[in-house]
Design brief:
single chain; about 550 residues; alpha+beta; eight-stranded parallel beta sheet; seven-stranded antiparallel beta sheet; about 30% strand
């Protein structure tokens, strides 16, 4: 009788899979990382599967006066990481006041002055060279700044580019084997990466993205677009720095590692802290870091089935966001099943097992060769994995999407993004029997945020002409009521000119053309209606429509 896969030997699963990996693969191909300020946290991090850590080298603290260096704290952090078995990545950032562009009151505020670029890039280059020479036998990878955006960096894109170029030049002179990572603004800022690779390709050894508050499943499309459209012909290693939502648990971390591997990432750094994981989750993380991504299976909406392999071993990690659903998997007789909650999540069937998938990932080792072959063929034929959505939620062939917000939101392909910073105080109202939203007066700022469905439009690098039509209730008098849009453009978020709402009793519509719209959900949303300047009356919004026309 064929034995049902059980949990009795799972204590060996992570070890078996890691031993099956080629020597050095776990460290060279992928590593889970952390961004931690306290060296006392390094040993506990290594115990939960973390293999690399970012350490900030604060230039303003290291060189408080020109030529007077104090390396003691950085020495301590680098050595503590190495003793804990962690590979240190040093983040070079923060200008000393004496070297900063800051003047007057700005120079007296360290949180402002140190975040500004230096007056002379040569001073920065000198500091980078000194750091790389000091640690060249202990640190191989260096990142330029924590994030090139407010409040971390108070300079322009061109000023950050100058720092990146100078850092690369200094690091190569001090240690030709060193690598320079370009930092990323929060979100999947594909336009930022594209700009760096276009203007300074030789300065960037490693590109990075910083998904903030997004579930791992929402990384799939940006990662696929990054690989297939931004990095094509300019391949670079990819790092992810994930600012997770509060309460990050082991299941979400395992899903994140799997998605990062599927998207071709070399490192995944977790901010603000890696959750405590043990038992099945810890073994799953160790296994995933020791295997290569082979491909994926298409099994319907909401199902994520990723296949990994190494040296004759193959494993499947699968889960479903939504209601539980069965998944049948052909396996070898010695297959083992690992559920993160420690329960048996499978039943034996002829030639395989049946899993009941839910949000908790299930890891199956010993899947049959045909599973690997199917996964590899899917990756080859369809490219990197994208979320599978039901037909009724696929807007790829639509010309326009719309929403009519109110007590019961109507529409499809366009959604409101709630709880954003600066979000307007909203009130659902009825106007002549039609649903609408009133933006409450006296709020500054007052934004209404929208997200265009990614299947409709994502990272529009000139492929479509985009327009947004906003329906509003007429104003009481000329130039007393208006709005503008803040939208995700190819050069970063930008405002459109202010538009006055025409006086009238009924609805009026205005079409806003966005010639350079990117709509890559860079900061978690694509555009916002700004009504912050209205004081004498309320802006009432009806239907909002986004239209695309192929160029």
């Amino acid at each position: 009788m064929r034995r049902t896969p059980t949990l009795w030997a799972l204590v060996l699963l992570g070890t078996v899979l890691l031993l099956a990996a080629p020597p050095g693969r776990a460290d060279q191909a992928f590593a889970l990382g952390a961004v931690v300020a306290q060296p006392t946290a390094y040993v506990p991090l290594r115990r939960v599967g973390v293999r690399t850590v970012k350490i900030t080298a604060d230039w303003s603290a290291i060189e408080p006066a020109r030529g007077r260096f104090s390396w003691a704290d950085l020495d301590l952090a680098v050595e503590a990481a190495r003793r804990a078995g962690l590979e240190p990545v040093v983040v070079l950032a923060f200008t000393p006041v004496w070297a900063s562009l800051a003047q007057g009151a700005e120079a007296r505020d360290p949180l402002v002055a140190t975040r500004m670029p230096p007056r002379q890039v040569g001073e920065w280059e000198r500091f980078v060279g000194a750091a790389v020479r000091r640690y060249r036998d202990r640190v191989r990878e260096w990142q330029v700044w924590t994030a090139p955006s407010l409040p971390h960096f108070r300079g322009t894109a061109s000023e950050y580019l100058a720092l990146l170029v100078a850092a690369r030049r200094a690091s190569q002179a001090a240690d030709p084997a060193s690598r320079i990572a370009a930092a990323s603004p929060p979100g999947f800022d594909l336009a930022h990466v594209q700009r760096l690779l276009t203007q300074a390709p030789d300065a960037v050894s490693i590109v990075s993205m910083a998904p903030s508050g997004l579930s791992p499943e929402r990384w799939l499309r940006p990662l696929a677009v990054l690989r297939e459209r931004v990095l094509r012909g300019a391949e670079r290693p990819l790092w992810l720095e994930w600012t997770a939502n509060p309460g990050l648990d082991a299941a979400a971390l395992v899903r994140a590692v799997a998605v990062a591997r599927a998207g071709g990432a070399e490192r995944l750094f977790v901010v603000p802290q890696v959750p405590q994981v043990d038992g099945p989750a810890a073994r799953a993380l160790e296994a995933l870091q020791g295997l290569a991504f082979a491909g994926y299976l298409l099994r319907g909406p909401g199902v994520y089935a990723l296949v990994f392999r190494a040296a004759g071993q193959a494993a499947l990690l699968a889960w479903r966001m939504g209601d539980p659903t069965p998944l049948e998997v052909p396996v070898l007789p010695a297959a083992r099943v690992l559920s993160l909650d420690g329960t048996a999540a499978s039943a034996s069937i002829e030639g395989g097992i049946r899993l009941l998938l839910g949000p908790l990932p299930v890891l199956v080792s010993g899947v049959a060769p045909e599973v690997v072959e199917e996964a590899e063929a899917t990756l080859r034929q369809r490219g990197l994995m994208l979320p599978v959505v039901p037909p009724e939620e696929d807007y790829s062939q639509a010309v326009e999407v719309s929403i009519r917000p109110g007590r019961e939101t109507v529409g499809g392909g366009l959604s409101l993004v709630q709880r954003m910073r600066g979000a307007a105080a909203l009130e659902a109202v009825d106007v002549n029997g039609e649903a609408a939203l009133r933006i409450a007066p006296g709020r500054e700022p007052a934004f209404l945020y929208f997200d265009v469905d990614d299947s409709f439009l994502f990272f529009n690098d000139g492929r479509f002409q985009v327009s947004v039509t906003v329906e509003t209730l007429g104003a009481r008098a000329p130039q007393t009521l208006g709005f503008n849009l803040l939208y995700d453009a190819r050069g970063g978020y930008r405002f459109t000119p202010w538009r006055w709402v025409e006086p009238g009793q009924g609805w009026t519509s205005q079409v806003v053309s966005l010639e350079d719209a990117s709509f890559a959900t860079t900061a978690g949303w694509d555009f916002a209606i700004n009504a912050g300047a209205n004081r004498r009356e309320d802006l009432i919004i009806g239907t909002v429509t986004v239209r695309k026309v192929a160029r």
